[in-house]
Amino acid sequence: MSPGPTLAQTQVVNYILPIVASFVTSFRLYCRARRSLLWIDDAWAACAMLFNIGLMICSALYLRGYVFHPQWEKVALYYTLSQCFYGVVWCSRLSILFTVVRLAYWGTQRRILICIAIIFGVVWGILFAQVWWTCESNPSWKQLPRPQCPLGRDVAIAQIVTDVLGDIVLILAPFLIIYRATLTTAQRVRVICLFSTSAITTVVSLTHAYFVFTVGELKEAVSAMFEASISLIVANLSVVVTFFLRMLADDETISRPIDSGSTTIEFGIVVEEP
């Protein structure tokens, strides 16, 4: 097996990825605020960004200053890291889901999507509870110089199942909307491609689950950092890509909005409030 990342390399990743993800999220919020289009999906993106910043700060303390902290603080930092990680990932998914909600017609479509959002929240709570009861059932890890709970197979399987199913839902959800919208084939492809970027998160999450199951230590930490920041970046893509497409549009016929019946779509991406 190849050697894992060094402590210094892990620290570099810990700073760079959250800073990039926070910049992208801040740009997304600026784009929406500038057009007075802030909504619930933006609030979830902002929450994910705050969790990601918390993950960065706690990781810095956990990785660099662990020798100087009392043991109970090290354990508390580990649990905080776990909560921040799940917070970033699931707030990002909720942001994507509510982006679809704002596209949806009032009625059955929105009720289905909001029920899915509630399920996402329940899954988030269950996953964190699973970490808690797994770690508390075998507390010997708390005495390690850098406490890291051996999460093992059950946690890895739960992460794989929920991540894959959650991302499949996010990829398929826009189909509830676009089949009723008046779009060209190219515009439909743009919508599908943008929301299909959730598959990127799936790939990263599978890598993280593999390290949870087999290796742990710094490889698990780095893969968690990647999954958290990539999840947040992917959640912002629909807004950021729309912004740049709008900038690049020279022809008035290209930039003209298309009415989908319930909302306004530009470049195959819904941009107006519900």
Automatic annotation (TrEMBL):
Protein's UniProt name: Rhodopsin domain-containing protein
Residues covered by the Rhodopsin domain: 28-238
Alphabetical list of PANTHER family matching this protein: MEMBRANE PROTEIN PTH11-LIKE, PUTATIVE (AFU_ORTHOLOGUE AFUA_1G14080)-RELATED (PTHR33048:SF19), PTH11-LIKE INTEGRAL MEMBRANE PROTEIN (AFU_ORTHOLOGUE AFUA_5G11245) (PTHR33048)
Residue intervals passing through the bilayer: 12-31, 43-65, 85-105, 112-133, 156-179, 191-213, 225-248
Family, as annotated: Belongs to the SAT4 family.
Keywords, in A-Z order: Membrane, Transmembrane, Transmembrane helix
Protein location: Membrane
Keyword Transmembrane in annotation: yes
Entries under InterPro entries matching the protein: Rhodopsin_dom_fungi, SAT4-like
Bilayer topology: Multi-pass membrane protein
Origin superkingdom: Eukaryota
The keyword Magnesium is assigned to this record: no
